[in-house]
Amino acid sequence: MTVPLPTDTTRWRCALCGNLTRFDVTRTSKVVEYVHLDLAGESNIEEREVVSENIESVRCRWCNAVDQVELVDRPGAGS
Ligand SMILES: [Zn+2]
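^ thats the input. predicted complex w/ zinc ion below
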């Protein structure tokens, strides 16, 4: 089962324990970075563009349930 992505008006909620705020998210992403090196060879990433991103799993920090998140309305969203 894929994890539902939160939107502007919804948020995650653990379906088992009701946790709304703490999750471990396993994510794979493809990123292009602008790496700027100084003359001493120290590198600094000045820009980062996410080309694609995929959430593989979400684990609840409270009860350790994996991929048991559901979407609920954010406070103040909608009506
Ligand atoms: Zn939970």
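The mean pLDDT is 93.
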